[in-house]
Write a structure and sequence with these properties.
The chain is an alpha/beta fold. It is 46% helix and 16% strand. Strand 1 and strand 2 (12-15) form a beta hairpin. The longest helix is centred in the C-terminal third of the chain and has 27 residues, at 309-335. The protein binds adenosine monophosphate (AMP) and zinc ion.
Length: 465
């Protein structure tokens, strides 16, 4: 089955057909680096990770670009508050961002352009737009995009442009639909601290032009996929389309995909509302990165994700179950056991169900559902010792294939040096029926992150996730 995605531009679920066979260009709007990112941002970055991985899983050679917004109203405001240079300020939060996505196993993009490294490219687009009559300059030297000159304006966000006053302007980077007006491409900064001297005057870019410049630099004037969360549709992506298409005269993006928000108590999680958790907040409370990854990818991107600690606990249980299943299969492979049930039909239906879920507009709930049905079917065979090493190996292989998209396998089971003698000592105590000592060692190991399970074949250990 081919991949189908919800295209915001058409409002339809469409088959993904890339511009160039076998290749996919993907641009994802990155973080504005003025603070730690919150788990709402991470929901979007993780869904985009699933999209990119599923495209690769489906055989496409993906070029993934994610920008770093290191100049905008907010970064300038907060670096000034701290009294340090914009670069020093944004570099700090860029590093934290990279740490956070690494912790959650997000596959690195191929390019992470910083907006401040692309000023000449932005100026060039603005120059082209001016040449083609799409801009005007205000009294202070700022350059605005004239939305009345672009009949396609409003197609993405489905705007009703009746009654818009031509020439009315908005200077801020973010504004609401009610405020649809000509927007700033270039902001004249006079002798402000953050400004570049360029052929179109001294100033700095508006937020929207940044993504138009960085995306076309790496992916060309027309490319396959552009993503973000629903708050990006207007004005950011609407304005990107206007700038890019009017400058190049070509269609900008084929598929626009937007994730619904992560919400708390029915409201969007946002830095400006103060109702947010960062990844670090959750790690400090002792939550496992894999459980957080699971929680954030398990709800399909077209559905709102309601964040609760009960949900996070449920996610932990799910990943723990998977980790236990993998450990048991590994144990069986090592045992070399022969005979038993043939699970090829279960493996086949797991693989098909998993892929069908993802092909269906990246329905991760469906794909993960197929994974847990498989675990439910195979577990009784493990319990009753009726699975061969060969079948266990095949099951592991199928899980590993799916994990190229999910990336939820437990960390490599490397034991600390001091754990091994403790495991042996407990085995001795158990054989001698010295239960109290055996239990004490089990607790000690658990505190070191090693979980023991006594099975008919002997004691097995695995690392806590
Ligand atoms: P920002 O750093 O604000 O530019 O946001 C980075 C990305 O996170 C953008 O794609 C936003 O649309 C997305 N985002 C912001 N808040 C949320 C939320 N509560 N849930 C999901 N995505 C969000
Ligand atoms: Zn963007």
């Amino acid at each position: 089955m081919p991949l189908f995605v919800s295209n915001t531009l058409s409002g339809l679920k469409e088959e993904f057909v890339p511009l160039e066979p076998g290749r996919a260009g993907l641009y994802t709007c990155g973080p504005t680096v003025y603070n730690f990112i919150h788990i709402g941002n991470l929901r979007t970055f993780l869904w985009e990770d699933v999209l990119r991985r599923h495209l690769e899983f489906s055989g496409y050679a993906v070029t993934h670009v994610m920008n770093i917004t290191d100049v905008d109203d907010k970064t300038i405001r907060d670096s000034a508050k701290e009294g340090i240079s914009l670069r020093a300020f944004t570099e700090r939060f860029t590093e934290y961002f990279f740490e956070d996505i690494r912790t959650l196993r997000v596959k690195p993009a191929h390019h992470y352009p910083r907006a401040t490294d692309f000023i000449p490219q932005m100026v060039e687009i603005i120059r082209k737009l001016t040449e083609r009559g799409f801009t005007y300059t205000s009294e202070d030297g700022s350059v605005y995009f004239r939305i009345a000159a672009f009949p396609g304006y409003g197609r993405l966000a489905k705007l009703d442009l009746e009654g818009i006053k031509p020439g009315a302007r908005v200077a801020t980077d973010e504004y609401e639909k009610e405020d649809v007006r000509d927007f700033a491409l270039w902001k004249a900064e006079g002798d402000g601290p953050v400004a570049w001297d360029t052929p179109i005057g001294r100033g700095r870019p508006g937020w929207h032009i940044e993504c138009s410049a960085m995306s076309s630099h790496y992916l060309g004037e027309t490319f396959d996929l552009h993503t973000g969360a629903v708050d990006n549709i207007f004005p950011h992506h609407e304005n990107e389309i206007a700038q890019s298409e009017c400058a190049s005269g070509k269609p900008f993006v084929k598929y626009w995909l937007h994730a619904e928000h992560l919400i708390v108590d029915g409201e969007k999680m946002a830095k400006s509302k103060g109702n947010f958790y960062t990844l670090r907040d959750l790690l400090e409370k002792g939550h496992a990165p894999l459980a957080i990854r699971y929680l954030l990818i398990s709800v399909p991107y077209k559905k709102k994700l309601n964040f609760t600690f009960a949900g996070l606990e449920g996610a932990y249980q799910a990943v723990d179950r998977l980790s236990n299943f993998i450990a048991r299969l590994n144990g069986l492979v090592e045992s070399g056991a022969d005979g038993g049930a043939d699970i090829l039909p279960q493996i086949k239906s797991f693989k098909e169900g998993f892929r069908a879920g993802l092909d269906n507009d990246l329905n991760t709930a469906e794909a993960i559902g197929a994974l847990f049905s498989f675990i439910r079917e195979v577990n009784p065979l493990l319990e009753s010792n009726s699975l061969s090493a060969l079948n266990a190996g095949l099951a592991l292989q199928a899980l590993r294939e799916a994990d190229a998209v999910l990336d939820l396998f437990p960390p490599a089971p490397k034991l600390q040096e001091e754990a091994l003698p403790l495991i042996k000592e407990r085995e001795v105590m158990r054989k001698a029926k010295r239960w109290a000592e055996a239990d004490a060692i089990r607790t000690q190991l658990s505190e070191m992150g090693v979980i023991l399970e006594d099975t008919a074949q002997g004691t097995r250990w695995r690392k806590k996730i």
